Amino acid sequence: MYRRGSWTRLRRDAGRTTAPPADPTLEARALKALARLTHIDDPERVAFYRERILASKPPRDRDLDERHKRLMTMLAWGLGSGTAGHQTLADFLEALWREDAVRDELLQLLEVVDQRSSTPGSPSLLPSEIPLTLHARYSRQEVVAALGFADGVKPKVTQGGILWVPQARSDVFFVDLHKAERDYSPTTMYRDYAINRELFHWESQSRQKPRQPTVQRYINHRSQGTRILLFVRERKSFELGTQPFTFLGPADYVEHHGERPVAFTWRLPMSMPEALFETARSVAAA
Questions:
Q1: Which of 83, 116, 149 is the last residue of a domain?
Q2: Residue 230 φ then ψ, to 5°
Q3: Which residues pair with residue 47 across a beta bridge?
Q4: How far apart are CA 276 and CA 262, in angstroms?
Q5: If you average pLDDT over every residue of the chain, what do you get?
């Protein structure tokens, strides 16, 4: 459906009654952005967003703990707060709450994605302020917000497959299993794949050696008190745009070998989901 526009737009085109917009520009942008939320499959996120959206007023910062503030930031960024022209996230949410058609469609969308989701509400083994769930799917922006790497109305722009988040003392690896040549240079066509359901093969940046400080942090992450967070997707794009990543959890170092790049084996906290495992395993044979 979202390849052809929003449900609200389709209803209006068919002559059905919907709530009128308070701000037509904001409504149009938010309805268009709903396609970016169709990947939500975390039971906690669905339940929290439903509860808040049903309220007559948006949540206030002072009424939320850090975990729920980050969840609201994830939602606002997904709905286009960065381009809406508001100075604060609270201002954006106040304006969004006046768009009854957007909230109504978002509630319907959450019901649909919840019904089709098979993602269990598994603990992430992360600090309580980080709202990530094992095997749930997230956009890059949502990961950044969840880790507290940025807040406010505008998403923090990050690029590349590796991100160090000092606030969370975490190295984040974003992995595309199938790498299109148009998106990668010859030196970044890394071989990342599943060895089995619990072990994952991952390659560092092409110029890195084991003795470099960053690589040593990967190797010694347990003793240094840092984390390796692995996010994997099949490929960069799918029918609704940019494909979200599946969170495979904080991984543990097993071994490494070679250099330029350094090849690592990581142990996952839980067996990979079946469909993603089959894809990730097939890459090794390609």
A1: 116
A2: -110, 120
A3: none
A4: 24
A5: 91
Number of domains composing the chain:
2
Distances (CA, A) of 26 to 181, 249, 258, 275: 37, 35, 52, 37
Beta-bridge partner residues of 249: 230
Residue 125 within any structural domain of the chain: no
Paired tokens of 118: 């098979």
Mean pLDDT of 249-253: 96
pLDDT above 70: residue 15: yes
| Residue 163 sits in the same domain as residue 280 | yes
Residue 229's CATH number: 2.30.280
Each residue of 145-171: pLDDT tens digit? Answer: 999 999 899 999 898 899 999 999 999
What letters, b where the CB count within 10 A reaches 16 and e where it falls short, cover 115-144?
A: eebebeebebebeebbbbbbbbbbbbbbbb
Is residue 22 included in any domain, yes or no?
yes
pTM summary value:
0.92
Instruction: Decide if 46 is inside a domain.
Output: yes
- Residue 253 within a domain: yes
Q: Are residues 93 and 179 in the same domain?
A: no
Coil, strand, or helix at residue 117? coil
Structural domain boundaries, residue 40 = 7-116
| Number of neighbouring beta carbons within 10 Å of residue 263 | 16
Stretch 7-27: mean pLDDT: 88
Q: Cis (ω within 30 of 0) for the bond into 123? A: no
Rounded mean pLDDT, 213-236: 96
Count other C-beta atoms under 10 Å from residue 114's C-beta: 17
